[in-house]
Automatic annotation (TrEMBL):
Protein name: Transporter
Assigned GO CC terms: plasma membrane
Positions contributing to Na(+) binding: G34, A36, V37, N41, S255, N287, L404, S408
A Pfam family this chain is assigned to: SNF
Subcellular location: Membrane
Principal cellular location given in the protein's record: membrane
Gene Ontology MF term list: metal ion binding; symporter activity
Organism (species): Sarcophilus harrisii (Tasmanian devil)
InterPro entries associated with the record: Na/ntran_symport, Neutral_aa_SLC6, SNS_sf
Family of the protein in this entry: Belongs to the sodium:neurotransmitter symporter (SNF) (TC 2.A.22) family.
Length: 618
Protein backbone atom coordinates (compact mmCIF):
# COMPACT_ATOMS: atom_id res chain seq x y z
CA UNK A 1 0.00 0.00 0.00
CA UNK A 2 1.00 3.66 -0.34
CA UNK A 3 2.34 5.60 2.62
CA UNK A 4 -1.10 7.15 3.19
CA UNK A 5 -2.39 3.92 4.70
CA UNK A 6 -0.97 2.92 8.03
CA UNK A 7 -1.11 -0.87 7.69
CA UNK A 8 -1.55 -3.57 5.10
CA UNK A 9 -2.99 -6.28 7.32
CA UNK A 10 -6.32 -5.68 8.95
CA UNK A 11 -7.28 -6.67 12.49
CA UNK A 12 -10.14 -8.76 11.24
CA UNK A 13 -7.72 -10.98 9.31
CA UNK A 14 -5.93 -12.17 12.44
CA UNK A 15 -7.02 -15.46 13.94
CA UNK A 16 -5.60 -14.41 17.31
CA UNK A 17 -7.82 -11.37 17.67
CA UNK A 18 -8.66 -11.19 21.38
CA UNK A 19 -11.14 -8.31 21.13
CA UNK A 20 -14.32 -8.91 23.20
CA UNK A 21 -17.48 -9.91 21.34
CA UNK A 22 -21.19 -9.54 21.96
CA UNK A 23 -22.90 -12.46 23.68
CA UNK A 24 -25.41 -12.57 20.83
CA UNK A 25 -26.65 -10.58 17.86
CA UNK A 26 -29.76 -9.40 19.72
CA UNK A 27 -27.66 -7.59 22.34
CA UNK A 28 -25.75 -5.76 19.63
CA UNK A 29 -28.90 -4.68 17.77
CA UNK A 30 -30.53 -3.46 20.99
CA UNK A 31 -27.39 -1.50 21.89
CA UNK A 32 -27.33 0.26 18.52
CA UNK A 33 -31.08 0.92 18.64
CA UNK A 34 -30.81 2.19 22.20
CA UNK A 35 -27.99 4.55 21.23
CA UNK A 36 -29.89 5.85 18.20
CA UNK A 37 -33.34 6.09 19.81
CA UNK A 38 -33.12 8.85 22.37
CA UNK A 39 -34.83 11.92 23.73
CA UNK A 40 -34.80 13.55 20.29
CA UNK A 41 -37.27 10.94 19.04
CA UNK A 42 -39.71 12.06 21.72
CA UNK A 43 -39.35 15.82 21.83
CA UNK A 44 -37.70 16.86 18.55
CA UNK A 45 -39.29 14.81 15.75
CA UNK A 46 -42.95 15.49 16.77
CA UNK A 47 -42.12 19.20 17.06
CA UNK A 48 -40.78 19.26 13.49
CA UNK A 49 -43.84 17.38 12.22
CA UNK A 50 -46.14 19.87 13.90
CA UNK A 51 -44.15 22.88 12.70
CA UNK A 52 -43.74 21.77 9.08
CA UNK A 53 -47.14 20.63 7.92
CA UNK A 54 -47.55 17.32 9.72
CA UNK A 55 -47.46 14.41 7.30
CA UNK A 56 -45.84 16.58 4.61
CA UNK A 57 -42.64 16.69 6.69
CA UNK A 58 -42.27 12.93 6.24
CA UNK A 59 -41.35 13.44 2.56
CA UNK A 60 -38.05 15.31 3.15
CA UNK A 61 -37.49 13.17 6.24
CA UNK A 62 -37.50 9.87 4.33
CA UNK A 63 -35.58 11.38 1.40
CA UNK A 64 -32.84 12.34 3.87
CA UNK A 65 -33.04 8.89 5.48
CA UNK A 66 -32.53 7.09 2.16
CA UNK A 67 -29.80 9.28 0.68
CA UNK A 68 -27.98 10.47 3.80
CA UNK A 69 -28.81 8.52 6.95
CA UNK A 70 -28.67 4.87 5.90
CA UNK A 71 -25.56 5.19 3.64
CA UNK A 72 -23.54 6.95 6.36
CA UNK A 73 -24.79 4.51 8.97
CA UNK A 74 -23.71 1.57 6.81
CA UNK A 75 -20.21 3.05 6.48
CA UNK A 76 -19.83 3.36 10.27
CA UNK A 77 -21.02 -0.19 10.99
CA UNK A 78 -18.96 -1.72 8.18
CA UNK A 79 -15.66 0.05 8.89
CA UNK A 80 -15.89 -0.57 12.64
CA UNK A 81 -16.64 -4.25 12.09
CA UNK A 82 -13.88 -4.71 9.49
CA UNK A 83 -11.09 -2.93 11.34
CA UNK A 84 -12.35 -3.98 14.81
CA UNK A 85 -11.32 -0.77 16.52
CA UNK A 86 -12.94 2.30 18.08
CA UNK A 87 -13.22 5.67 16.37
CA UNK A 88 -9.57 6.68 16.97
CA UNK A 89 -8.15 3.30 15.95
CA UNK A 90 -10.26 3.12 12.78
CA UNK A 91 -9.10 6.45 11.39
CA UNK A 92 -5.45 5.99 12.37
CA UNK A 93 -5.56 2.65 10.53
CA UNK A 94 -7.08 4.18 7.39
CA UNK A 95 -4.63 7.10 7.45
CA UNK A 96 -2.51 8.68 10.20
CA UNK A 97 -3.59 12.05 8.82
CA UNK A 98 -7.23 11.26 9.75
CA UNK A 99 -6.52 10.38 13.37
CA UNK A 100 -7.83 13.80 14.39
CA UNK A 101 -11.33 12.75 13.27
CA UNK A 102 -11.39 9.98 15.87
CA UNK A 103 -10.01 12.23 18.62
CA UNK A 104 -12.58 14.89 17.70
CA UNK A 105 -15.39 12.30 17.96
CA UNK A 106 -14.09 11.39 21.41
CA UNK A 107 -14.20 15.04 22.53
CA UNK A 108 -17.72 15.54 21.17
CA UNK A 109 -18.98 12.41 22.92
CA UNK A 110 -17.40 13.61 26.16
CA UNK A 111 -19.02 17.06 25.92
CA UNK A 112 -22.41 15.62 24.94
CA UNK A 113 -22.28 13.14 27.83
CA UNK A 114 -21.87 16.04 30.27
CA UNK A 115 -25.12 17.78 29.37
CA UNK A 116 -27.06 14.68 28.28
CA UNK A 117 -26.78 13.16 31.73
CA UNK A 118 -27.75 16.54 33.18
CA UNK A 119 -31.07 16.23 31.35
CA UNK A 120 -31.45 12.80 32.96
CA UNK A 121 -30.76 14.51 36.29
CA UNK A 122 -33.79 16.73 35.73
CA UNK A 123 -35.87 13.74 34.58
CA UNK A 124 -34.91 11.85 37.74
CA UNK A 125 -35.94 14.85 39.87
CA UNK A 126 -39.37 14.92 38.21
CA UNK A 127 -39.64 11.13 38.39
CA UNK A 128 -39.04 11.15 42.15
CA UNK A 129 -41.55 13.98 42.63
CA UNK A 130 -44.16 12.04 40.66
CA UNK A 131 -44.80 9.71 43.61
CA UNK A 132 -46.98 12.34 45.27
CA UNK A 133 -50.67 13.06 45.17
CA UNK A 134 -51.43 15.73 44.24
CA UNK A 135 -48.42 16.37 42.01
CA UNK A 136 -46.19 19.19 43.33
CA UNK A 137 -46.57 21.18 40.09
CA UNK A 138 -50.38 21.06 40.16
CA UNK A 139 -50.84 24.06 42.49
CA UNK A 140 -49.01 27.21 43.53
CA UNK A 141 -47.35 27.27 46.96
CA UNK A 142 -48.50 29.88 49.47
CA UNK A 143 -46.53 33.05 50.16
CA UNK A 144 -44.69 33.70 53.43
CA UNK A 145 -47.76 35.23 55.07
CA UNK A 146 -49.85 32.27 53.85
CA UNK A 147 -52.47 34.70 52.59
CA UNK A 148 -52.34 33.64 48.95
CA UNK A 149 -50.19 32.03 46.25
CA UNK A 150 -46.65 33.24 45.54
CA UNK A 151 -46.78 36.16 43.13
CA UNK A 152 -44.34 34.67 40.58
CA UNK A 153 -46.42 31.50 40.35
CA UNK A 154 -49.66 33.45 40.12
CA UNK A 155 -48.36 35.56 37.22
CA UNK A 156 -47.07 32.55 35.27
CA UNK A 157 -48.58 29.14 36.08
CA UNK A 158 -47.94 26.15 38.31
CA UNK A 159 -45.83 24.08 35.90
CA UNK A 160 -43.64 27.03 34.91
CA UNK A 161 -43.06 27.90 38.55
CA UNK A 162 -42.11 24.35 39.50
CA UNK A 163 -39.68 24.11 36.58
CA UNK A 164 -37.99 27.50 36.68
CA UNK A 165 -38.10 28.22 40.41
CA UNK A 166 -38.45 25.00 42.39
CA UNK A 167 -36.29 22.84 40.09
CA UNK A 168 -33.76 25.18 38.46
CA UNK A 169 -34.10 28.17 40.82
CA UNK A 170 -32.94 30.03 37.72
CA UNK A 171 -31.15 33.39 37.66
CA UNK A 172 -32.41 36.26 35.50
CA UNK A 173 -29.12 36.58 33.59
CA UNK A 174 -26.32 34.28 32.47
CA UNK A 175 -23.80 36.66 34.06
CA UNK A 176 -25.21 35.67 37.46
CA UNK A 177 -23.92 32.17 38.17
CA UNK A 178 -25.90 31.68 41.35
CA UNK A 179 -25.30 28.85 43.79
CA UNK A 180 -25.17 25.08 43.43
CA UNK A 181 -28.56 23.40 43.87
CA UNK A 182 -27.76 20.46 46.12
CA UNK A 183 -30.93 18.52 45.41
CA UNK A 184 -29.87 18.47 41.75
CA UNK A 185 -26.30 17.50 42.70
CA UNK A 186 -27.68 14.42 44.49
CA UNK A 187 -29.67 13.47 41.36
CA UNK A 188 -26.61 14.09 39.14
CA UNK A 189 -24.39 11.83 41.26
CA UNK A 190 -27.11 9.15 41.25
CA UNK A 191 -27.36 9.32 37.44
CA UNK A 192 -23.61 8.91 36.99
CA UNK A 193 -23.55 6.02 39.46
CA UNK A 194 -26.27 4.27 37.44
CA UNK A 195 -24.32 4.84 34.21
CA UNK A 196 -21.14 3.50 35.82
CA UNK A 197 -22.83 0.38 37.16
CA UNK A 198 -24.36 -0.35 33.75
CA UNK A 199 -21.12 0.04 31.73
CA UNK A 200 -18.61 -1.18 34.33
CA UNK A 201 -17.92 -4.46 32.51
CA UNK A 202 -17.85 -3.02 29.00
CA UNK A 203 -20.11 -4.55 26.37
CA UNK A 204 -20.90 -7.47 28.67
CA UNK A 205 -22.79 -5.23 31.11
CA UNK A 206 -23.81 -2.59 28.55
CA UNK A 207 -25.67 -5.13 26.41
CA UNK A 208 -27.64 -6.53 29.35
CA UNK A 209 -28.46 -3.06 30.72
CA UNK A 210 -29.52 -1.88 27.27
CA UNK A 211 -31.94 -4.81 26.98
CA UNK A 212 -33.55 -3.98 30.34
CA UNK A 213 -33.92 -0.21 29.92
CA UNK A 214 -34.93 -0.31 26.24
CA UNK A 215 -37.74 -2.77 26.94
CA UNK A 216 -38.94 -0.50 29.78
CA UNK A 217 -38.80 2.55 27.50
CA UNK A 218 -40.88 0.94 24.74
CA UNK A 219 -43.34 -0.45 27.29
CA UNK A 220 -43.83 3.02 28.79
CA UNK A 221 -44.26 4.51 25.32
CA UNK A 222 -47.00 2.01 24.54
CA UNK A 223 -48.70 2.61 27.90
CA UNK A 224 -48.57 6.40 27.58
CA UNK A 225 -50.78 6.41 24.48
CA UNK A 226 -54.06 8.24 24.99
CA UNK A 227 -57.33 7.62 23.29
CA UNK A 228 -57.27 11.12 21.79
CA UNK A 229 -54.94 11.02 18.81
CA UNK A 230 -54.14 14.12 16.82
CA UNK A 231 -51.88 14.28 13.81
CA UNK A 232 -51.47 17.65 12.05
CA UNK A 233 -53.02 18.03 8.63
CA UNK A 234 -50.81 17.78 5.56
CA UNK A 235 -49.53 21.07 4.21
CA UNK A 236 -47.47 20.25 1.12
CA UNK A 237 -46.96 23.92 0.21
CA UNK A 238 -44.47 24.18 3.06
CA UNK A 239 -42.11 21.84 1.17
CA UNK A 240 -41.09 24.88 -0.89
CA UNK A 241 -39.32 26.19 2.20
CA UNK A 242 -35.63 25.11 2.11
CA UNK A 243 -35.47 25.21 5.93
CA UNK A 244 -37.82 22.21 6.00
CA UNK A 245 -35.34 20.11 4.03
CA UNK A 246 -32.43 21.32 6.14
CA UNK A 247 -34.19 20.42 9.39
CA UNK A 248 -35.22 17.02 8.01
CA UNK A 249 -31.64 16.18 7.01
CA UNK A 250 -30.32 17.41 10.35
CA UNK A 251 -32.92 15.41 12.28
CA UNK A 252 -31.97 12.20 10.47
CA UNK A 253 -28.30 12.87 11.10
CA UNK A 254 -28.62 13.42 14.84
CA UNK A 255 -31.41 10.90 15.35
CA UNK A 256 -29.17 8.07 14.14
CA UNK A 257 -26.28 9.38 16.32
CA UNK A 258 -23.95 9.53 13.34
CA UNK A 259 -20.29 10.60 13.68
CA UNK A 260 -20.22 10.20 17.47
CA UNK A 261 -18.10 7.07 17.20
CA UNK A 262 -20.49 4.98 19.29
CA UNK A 263 -21.73 2.83 16.41
CA UNK A 264 -18.15 2.26 15.24
CA UNK A 265 -17.28 1.12 18.77
CA UNK A 266 -20.33 -1.16 19.04
CA UNK A 267 -19.76 -2.77 15.63
CA UNK A 268 -16.07 -3.36 16.41
CA UNK A 269 -17.17 -6.06 18.88
CA UNK A 270 -19.02 -7.96 16.12
CA UNK A 271 -17.90 -11.06 14.33
CA UNK A 272 -16.05 -10.02 11.13
CA UNK A 273 -18.55 -12.03 9.07
CA UNK A 274 -21.65 -10.25 10.41
CA UNK A 275 -24.16 -8.87 7.87
CA UNK A 276 -23.60 -5.16 8.60
CA UNK A 277 -25.63 -4.03 5.57
CA UNK A 278 -28.78 -5.68 6.89
CA UNK A 279 -28.07 -4.28 10.37
CA UNK A 280 -27.74 -0.71 9.06
CA UNK A 281 -31.10 -0.85 7.27
CA UNK A 282 -32.86 -2.56 10.19
CA UNK A 283 -31.61 -0.18 12.89
CA UNK A 284 -32.27 2.93 10.78
CA UNK A 285 -35.85 1.85 10.02
CA UNK A 286 -36.55 0.89 13.65
CA UNK A 287 -35.28 4.32 14.72
CA UNK A 288 -37.55 6.12 12.24
CA UNK A 289 -40.57 3.96 13.05
CA UNK A 290 -39.99 4.68 16.74
CA UNK A 291 -40.09 8.41 15.97
CA UNK A 292 -43.41 7.98 14.17
CA UNK A 293 -44.78 5.77 16.93
CA UNK A 294 -43.69 8.26 19.59
CA UNK A 295 -45.32 11.07 17.63
CA UNK A 296 -48.72 9.39 17.96
CA UNK A 297 -48.34 9.33 21.75
CA UNK A 298 -47.01 12.91 21.82
CA UNK A 299 -49.81 14.25 19.62
CA UNK A 300 -52.31 12.38 21.78
CA UNK A 301 -51.12 14.23 24.87
CA UNK A 302 -50.85 17.54 23.00
CA UNK A 303 -54.36 17.04 21.65
CA UNK A 304 -55.66 16.26 25.14
CA UNK A 305 -54.00 19.41 26.50
CA UNK A 306 -55.21 21.56 23.58
CA UNK A 307 -58.79 20.39 24.11
CA UNK A 308 -58.63 21.25 27.82
CA UNK A 309 -57.11 24.66 27.08
CA UNK A 310 -59.81 25.29 24.47
CA UNK A 311 -62.57 24.44 26.95
CA UNK A 312 -60.96 26.63 29.64
CA UNK A 313 -60.84 29.51 27.17
CA UNK A 314 -64.53 29.06 26.34
CA UNK A 315 -65.46 28.82 30.03
CA UNK A 316 -63.64 32.07 30.89
CA UNK A 317 -65.36 33.88 28.03
CA UNK A 318 -68.76 32.45 28.99
CA UNK A 319 -68.33 33.58 32.62
CA UNK A 320 -67.37 37.08 31.45
CA UNK A 321 -70.48 37.31 29.23
CA UNK A 322 -72.78 35.97 31.97
CA UNK A 323 -71.43 38.49 34.50
CA UNK A 324 -71.63 41.40 32.04
CA UNK A 325 -75.20 40.76 30.93
CA UNK A 326 -76.51 39.28 34.21
CA UNK A 327 -77.54 36.02 32.57
CA UNK A 328 -78.48 33.06 34.80
CA UNK A 329 -75.65 30.69 35.72
CA UNK A 330 -74.98 27.96 33.16
CA UNK A 331 -77.38 29.63 30.74
CA UNK A 332 -74.70 29.48 28.04
CA UNK A 333 -73.21 26.10 27.19
CA UNK A 334 -69.97 25.51 25.31
CA UNK A 335 -71.85 24.32 22.23
CA UNK A 336 -73.97 27.52 22.23
CA UNK A 337 -71.08 29.93 22.81
CA UNK A 338 -70.39 30.81 19.16
CA UNK A 339 -74.08 31.48 18.38
CA UNK A 340 -74.51 33.58 21.52
CA UNK A 341 -71.30 35.53 20.94
CA UNK A 342 -72.23 36.29 17.30
CA UNK A 343 -75.67 37.56 18.33
CA UNK A 344 -74.37 39.76 21.18
CA UNK A 345 -71.50 41.09 19.08
CA UNK A 346 -73.99 42.28 16.44
CA UNK A 347 -76.42 43.86 18.94
CA UNK A 348 -74.16 44.90 21.86
CA UNK A 349 -70.80 45.44 20.16
CA UNK A 350 -69.54 48.10 22.62
CA UNK A 351 -70.15 45.98 25.71
CA UNK A 352 -68.59 42.90 24.09
CA UNK A 353 -65.51 44.95 23.10
CA UNK A 354 -65.04 46.10 26.72
CA UNK A 355 -64.85 42.49 27.88
CA UNK A 356 -61.70 41.88 25.78
CA UNK A 357 -62.65 38.26 25.23
CA UNK A 358 -59.93 35.91 24.08
CA UNK A 359 -60.09 34.22 20.69
CA UNK A 360 -60.86 30.55 21.28
CA UNK A 361 -60.06 28.23 18.36
CA UNK A 362 -59.07 24.62 18.91
CA UNK A 363 -56.62 24.72 15.99
CA UNK A 364 -54.74 27.64 17.58
CA UNK A 365 -54.10 25.58 20.69
CA UNK A 366 -53.11 22.56 18.60
CA UNK A 367 -50.62 24.68 16.66
CA UNK A 368 -48.77 25.74 19.80
CA UNK A 369 -45.58 23.73 19.43
CA UNK A 370 -42.73 23.09 21.83
CA UNK A 371 -39.61 20.95 21.81
CA UNK A 372 -36.83 19.93 24.15
CA UNK A 373 -37.16 20.67 27.84
CA UNK A 374 -40.15 22.93 27.10
CA UNK A 375 -42.11 19.92 25.84
CA UNK A 376 -41.04 17.50 28.57
CA UNK A 377 -41.09 19.66 31.69
CA UNK A 378 -43.77 22.23 30.84
CA UNK A 379 -46.21 21.11 28.13
CA UNK A 380 -46.37 17.45 29.18
CA UNK A 381 -46.46 18.15 32.90
CA UNK A 382 -49.34 20.58 32.36
CA UNK A 383 -51.22 17.98 30.34
CA UNK A 384 -50.60 15.27 32.94
CA UNK A 385 -52.19 17.20 35.81
CA UNK A 386 -55.49 17.23 33.89
CA UNK A 387 -55.47 13.44 33.41
CA UNK A 388 -57.25 11.08 35.79
CA UNK A 389 -54.67 9.33 37.95
CA UNK A 390 -52.08 11.97 37.09
CA UNK A 391 -49.28 10.66 39.40
CA UNK A 392 -49.35 7.32 37.59
CA UNK A 393 -49.08 8.99 34.19
CA UNK A 394 -46.21 11.14 35.47
CA UNK A 395 -44.32 8.08 36.71
CA UNK A 396 -44.80 6.34 33.34
CA UNK A 397 -43.78 9.37 31.29
CA UNK A 398 -40.63 10.27 33.21
CA UNK A 399 -39.72 6.60 33.58
CA UNK A 400 -39.85 6.31 29.78
CA UNK A 401 -37.72 9.45 29.31
CA UNK A 402 -35.12 8.24 31.80
CA UNK A 403 -34.86 4.81 30.17
CA UNK A 404 -34.54 6.25 26.66
CA UNK A 405 -31.94 8.77 27.76
CA UNK A 406 -29.96 6.19 29.69
CA UNK A 407 -29.63 3.85 26.70
CA UNK A 408 -28.26 6.75 24.65
CA UNK A 409 -25.82 7.55 27.46
CA UNK A 410 -24.40 4.02 27.19
CA UNK A 411 -23.50 4.74 23.55
CA UNK A 412 -22.01 8.13 24.40
CA UNK A 413 -19.79 6.63 27.09
CA UNK A 414 -18.77 3.75 24.82
CA UNK A 415 -17.67 6.43 22.32
CA UNK A 416 -15.34 7.77 25.01
CA UNK A 417 -14.15 4.53 26.63
CA UNK A 418 -13.38 2.41 23.56
CA UNK A 419 -10.97 4.91 21.90
CA UNK A 420 -9.16 5.52 25.21
CA UNK A 421 -8.69 1.78 25.74
CA UNK A 422 -7.65 1.24 22.10
CA UNK A 423 -5.03 4.02 22.29
CA UNK A 424 -3.57 2.31 25.39
CA UNK A 425 -3.07 5.66 27.12
CA UNK A 426 -3.41 3.83 30.43
CA UNK A 427 -1.22 0.74 31.11
CA UNK A 428 -3.00 -2.58 30.62
CA UNK A 429 -2.30 -3.46 34.25
CA UNK A 430 -4.90 -0.86 35.31
CA UNK A 431 -8.33 -2.56 35.59
CA UNK A 432 -10.96 -1.44 33.12
CA UNK A 433 -13.37 -0.89 36.00
CA UNK A 434 -11.01 1.71 37.48
CA UNK A 435 -10.59 3.52 34.14
CA UNK A 436 -14.37 3.64 33.73
CA UNK A 437 -14.77 4.93 37.29
CA UNK A 438 -12.23 7.72 36.73
CA UNK A 439 -13.90 8.82 33.48
CA UNK A 440 -17.36 8.84 35.08
CA UNK A 441 -15.99 10.79 38.06
CA UNK A 442 -14.39 13.40 35.78
CA UNK A 443 -17.65 13.72 33.84
CA UNK A 444 -19.69 14.07 37.03
CA UNK A 445 -17.40 16.78 38.45
CA UNK A 446 -17.35 18.63 35.12
CA UNK A 447 -21.15 18.57 34.92
CA UNK A 448 -21.52 20.30 38.29
CA UNK A 449 -21.60 23.62 36.42
CA UNK A 450 -25.06 22.63 35.16
CA UNK A 451 -26.36 22.41 38.75
CA UNK A 452 -25.77 26.14 39.26
CA UNK A 453 -28.78 28.45 39.09
CA UNK A 454 -27.54 29.52 35.63
CA UNK A 455 -26.96 25.88 34.63
CA UNK A 456 -29.85 25.65 32.16
CA UNK A 457 -28.41 28.59 30.18
CA UNK A 458 -25.09 26.76 29.90
CA UNK A 459 -26.75 23.51 28.94
CA UNK A 460 -28.44 25.32 26.05
CA UNK A 461 -25.02 26.64 24.94
CA UNK A 462 -23.48 23.16 25.05
CA UNK A 463 -26.45 21.74 23.14
CA UNK A 464 -26.17 24.39 20.40
CA UNK A 465 -22.40 24.60 19.97
CA UNK A 466 -20.61 21.50 21.28
CA UNK A 467 -21.83 18.93 18.76
CA UNK A 468 -23.89 20.16 15.80
CA UNK A 469 -21.24 21.73 13.58
CA UNK A 470 -18.50 19.33 14.64
CA UNK A 471 -20.51 16.22 13.81
CA UNK A 472 -21.23 17.49 10.29
CA UNK A 473 -17.49 18.01 9.76
CA UNK A 474 -16.59 14.58 11.14
CA UNK A 475 -19.24 12.83 9.03
CA UNK A 476 -17.93 14.53 5.89
CA UNK A 477 -14.37 13.38 6.64
CA UNK A 478 -15.68 9.88 7.43
CA UNK A 479 -17.11 9.55 3.92
CA UNK A 480 -14.03 11.09 2.29
CA UNK A 481 -11.70 8.95 4.40
CA UNK A 482 -13.43 5.65 3.67
CA UNK A 483 -14.44 6.17 0.03
CA UNK A 484 -11.55 8.26 -1.31
CA UNK A 485 -8.60 7.48 1.01
CA UNK A 486 -9.26 3.89 2.02
CA UNK A 487 -10.72 3.43 -1.46
CA UNK A 488 -14.14 2.57 -2.84
CA UNK A 489 -12.95 -0.70 -4.38
CA UNK A 490 -11.18 -1.84 -1.24
CA UNK A 491 -14.16 -0.92 0.95
CA UNK A 492 -16.58 -2.75 -1.38
CA UNK A 493 -14.27 -5.77 -1.29
CA UNK A 494 -14.38 -5.68 2.51
CA UNK A 495 -18.18 -5.44 2.59
CA UNK A 496 -18.43 -8.34 0.14
CA UNK A 497 -16.04 -10.38 2.31
CA UNK A 498 -18.13 -9.66 5.43
CA UNK A 499 -21.66 -9.99 4.01
CA UNK A 500 -21.20 -12.18 0.95
CA UNK A 501 -22.76 -9.45 -1.25
CA UNK A 502 -21.03 -6.69 -3.14
CA UNK A 503 -22.56 -3.21 -2.55
CA UNK A 504 -24.95 -2.40 -5.38
CA UNK A 505 -25.35 0.77 -7.45
CA UNK A 506 -27.40 2.56 -4.76
CA UNK A 507 -24.70 2.20 -2.11
CA UNK A 508 -21.86 3.22 -4.39
CA UNK A 509 -23.61 6.32 -5.78
CA UNK A 510 -24.73 7.56 -2.36
CA UNK A 511 -21.30 6.96 -0.83
CA UNK A 512 -19.34 8.54 -3.62
CA UNK A 513 -21.54 11.50 -4.63
CA UNK A 514 -24.89 12.07 -2.92
CA UNK A 515 -24.01 11.71 0.79
CA UNK A 516 -20.89 13.94 0.77
CA UNK A 517 -22.75 16.53 -1.32
CA UNK A 518 -25.69 16.55 1.11
CA UNK A 519 -23.33 16.93 4.08
CA UNK A 520 -21.54 19.81 2.37
CA UNK A 521 -24.85 21.56 1.59
CA UNK A 522 -26.08 21.11 5.18
CA UNK A 523 -22.77 22.42 6.52
CA UNK A 524 -22.84 25.55 4.33
CA UNK A 525 -26.53 26.20 5.13
CA UNK A 526 -25.83 25.74 8.83
CA UNK A 527 -22.97 28.26 8.74
CA UNK A 528 -25.13 30.78 6.85
CA UNK A 529 -27.94 30.48 9.41
CA UNK A 530 -25.48 30.93 12.27
CA UNK A 531 -24.00 34.06 10.69
CA UNK A 532 -27.38 35.59 9.88
CA UNK A 533 -28.78 35.24 13.40
CA UNK A 534 -27.01 36.78 16.38
CA UNK A 535 -27.00 34.27 19.27
CA UNK A 536 -29.55 35.00 21.99
CA UNK A 537 -31.05 33.22 24.96
CA UNK A 538 -34.38 33.39 26.76
CA UNK A 539 -34.16 34.77 30.29
CA UNK A 540 -36.76 33.88 32.93
CA UNK A 541 -37.25 37.28 34.57
CA UNK A 542 -40.29 37.92 36.84
CA UNK A 543 -39.56 41.67 36.60
CA UNK A 544 -39.89 41.64 32.80
CA UNK A 545 -42.87 43.65 31.49
CA UNK A 546 -44.17 40.79 29.33
CA UNK A 547 -43.59 38.09 31.96
CA UNK A 548 -44.17 35.09 31.81
CA UNK A 549 -42.87 35.42 28.25
CA UNK A 550 -39.10 34.96 28.31
CA UNK A 551 -36.94 38.03 27.84
CA UNK A 552 -34.68 37.73 24.78
CA UNK A 553 -31.10 38.71 25.60
CA UNK A 554 -27.85 38.72 23.65
CA UNK A 555 -24.96 36.67 24.96
CA UNK A 556 -22.20 38.81 26.50
CA UNK A 557 -18.79 38.84 24.81
CA UNK A 558 -17.09 36.39 27.17
CA UNK A 559 -19.88 33.85 26.66
CA UNK A 560 -19.54 34.16 22.87
CA UNK A 561 -15.84 33.35 23.21
CA UNK A 562 -16.79 30.17 25.09
CA UNK A 563 -19.29 29.33 22.32
CA UNK A 564 -16.50 29.66 19.74
CA UNK A 565 -14.17 27.49 21.84
CA UNK A 566 -16.85 24.80 22.18
CA UNK A 567 -17.40 24.85 18.42
CA UNK A 568 -13.69 24.66 17.56
CA UNK A 569 -12.31 22.45 20.34
CA UNK A 570 -13.33 19.08 18.82
CA UNK A 571 -12.95 19.91 15.10
CA UNK A 572 -9.54 21.63 15.50
CA UNK A 573 -8.08 18.15 15.99
CA UNK A 574 -8.72 17.30 12.32
CA UNK A 575 -6.32 19.84 10.75
CA UNK A 576 -4.17 19.98 13.90
CA UNK A 577 -3.31 16.28 13.97
CA UNK A 578 -2.86 16.14 10.19
CA UNK A 579 -0.36 19.02 10.41
CA UNK A 580 1.41 17.30 13.31
CA UNK A 581 1.75 14.09 11.26
CA UNK A 582 3.03 16.04 8.26
CA UNK A 583 5.71 17.83 10.29
CA UNK A 584 6.72 14.64 12.12
CA UNK A 585 7.09 12.67 8.89
CA UNK A 586 9.12 15.40 7.22
CA UNK A 587 11.45 15.53 10.20
CA UNK A 588 11.91 11.75 10.04
CA UNK A 589 12.62 11.92 6.32
CA UNK A 590 15.18 14.68 6.93
CA UNK A 591 16.96 12.62 9.58
CA UNK A 592 16.95 9.50 7.40
CA UNK A 593 18.33 11.33 4.36
CA UNK A 594 21.01 12.98 6.53
CA UNK A 595 22.00 9.59 7.97
CA UNK A 596 22.23 8.07 4.49
CA UNK A 597 24.36 10.97 3.26
CA UNK A 598 26.67 10.72 6.25
CA UNK A 599 27.01 6.98 5.75
CA UNK A 600 28.16 7.42 2.14
CA UNK A 601 30.75 10.17 3.00
CA UNK A 602 34.33 8.64 2.84
CA UNK A 603 35.57 10.92 5.64
CA UNK A 604 32.82 9.65 7.93
CA UNK A 605 33.77 6.06 7.11
CA UNK A 606 37.46 6.79 7.94
CA UNK A 607 36.42 8.41 11.24
CA UNK A 608 34.33 5.36 12.15
CA UNK A 609 37.31 3.02 11.42
CA UNK A 610 39.66 5.13 13.60
CA UNK A 611 37.17 4.95 16.47
CA UNK A 612 36.86 1.17 16.07
CA UNK A 613 40.67 0.75 16.03
CA UNK A 614 41.05 2.77 19.22
CA UNK A 615 38.37 0.66 20.90
CA UNK A 616 40.20 -2.51 19.75
CA UNK A 617 43.50 -1.36 21.28
CA UNK A 618 41.84 -0.65 24.56
Amino acid sequence: MSSILAVDTLPGDSKDDERPKWDNKFQYLLSCIGFAVGLGNIWRFPYLCQTYGGGAFLIPYFVALIFEGIPLFHIELAIGQRLRKGSVGVWSTISPYLNGVGIGCLFVSFLVSLYYNTILMWVMWYFLNSFQSPLPWSSCPLNENRTGPIEECQHSNTVNYFWYRQTLNITTDINESGTVQWRLVVCLVACWMIVYICIIRGIESTGKSMFFFLIIAFYFQNTCKSSFQHLPLQNFIILQNPRVWLDAATQIFFSLSLAFGGHIAFSSYNSPKNDCEKDAITIALVNSMTSLYASIAVFSVLGFKATNDYWDCLDRNIISIINEFDFPDQSIQRDDYLTCFTHLNSTQADRIARLQLKSCHLQDFLDKSASGTGLAFIVFTEAIIHMPGSPGWAVLFFGMLFSLGLTSMFGNMESVLTPILDMQIVPRSVPKELITAVICLVCCLSALCFTLQSGSYWLEIFDNYAASLNLLIFAFFEVIGVIYVYGMKRFCDDVEWMTGRRPNFYWQVTWKIISPMLLLIIFVAYIILMIQKQPTYGSWNPQYDDFPIKQEKFYPGWVRIICVILSLLPCIWVPGYALFQLITRRQKRGKNSWSETCGKNPMNQITERVILCKRGRK
